[in-house]
Amino acid sequence: MKKSGGTEKKRARRSSGAIQNGSRDPNFDTPPRGQPVKQDAFQLFAEKVRDNKDLVSRWAVLQETRVEYFRGKDFVSFLRNHPELKDILETDKNLDTDDLANALLRKNLLVRCDRVVKTVRPGKKKLSTWPAHLEIFPEQVFSEYDAFFAWTFVKRRPLWQTLLSFFWPVLTLAICLFPVYPHQCKLLILYSCAGVLLLILSLLSLRATIFGALYIVIGKRVWFFPNILAEEATLRELFRFCPKKDEEERPKWTTRLFYALVAVLVILLLRHHAPDEAARARYQKRVSNIIDDVLEWSPRLALSGMMDKQQTVMNATEPNSSSPDASQSTEEMAPSNIESEETTSDQNEAEAFEHLDDADQHKRDDNI
Prior knowledge:
The chain has eleven helices and five strands. It has helices spanning about 1-20, 40-50, 70-80, 95-105, 160-175, 185-215, 235-240, 255-270, 275-295, 300-315, 325-365, and strands at about 60, 65-70, 110-115, 135, 150. The relative contact order is 0.05.
């Protein structure tokens, strides 16, 4: 009872002191621990707007930091086409576009930027629509004309990215265990990866060929699949087929003729140094042998090969006298050697006696 009374007196003192000072105690307005803190409506609105794909945005470098930004006129047209997003603001849903954007700027959810390069580069007629480098604009006020606004908060990570970060170590371990896979799984993985790589290279080659042909013939820069090499793009934007609009100045006919001559020379060189059928067969055999070695390798074969090599080294280092087979062979060969030596000695003695007899006979004939 004494402790509860003391806490009530402390609360009364805090409230009276806050009223006398003309300010509110921040600890007095905090919600209880069990009640969740309500998120700011403008923060929810900014997250909804940023996650919506209808608002055209790009990535740029702002003071050595990559940021996502949009143009003021695109923000105005977006809110005009999606007025239902203002319902998140509740009491502030009747604000017009300028007041709403200024509120986001005051809450540091947006920052107004300006392009770093403000002069037209040589060979171009106007400034870039989406600059790659930005700087902070001095006046943080919303403007619809030639104004850029970057998001200052970190975008919430979607669920698929979290799952991908979890399964990435598992995928790395699976790649390391590729040598112990069954033969059919190895074939499936090998041909799948080779097919995907061939598809990407073929698509890039076709894209470059179409661009070069149209550039030389009609002088237009037409890129099919314009976002296929983009660093930051969604899967839908990555394979967008529509060509990129040519905003640069048309090249001169001398430049087009020069690139045409270069292309013809490259084609002639490639055709002259192309491998013949025998070289192609050798390359194919070499590559097929490498692929077979990769597919047929296994730890069991590696261990058996090491054991065979070790056994061969041991047999080569052992002396000949220590092997039982060598002793047996020497014992078997010894009697035959002795017999052969005896027969040769007998033949030599017989030939010597014959020579002596012949000599005696000649002497007798001479005496007669």
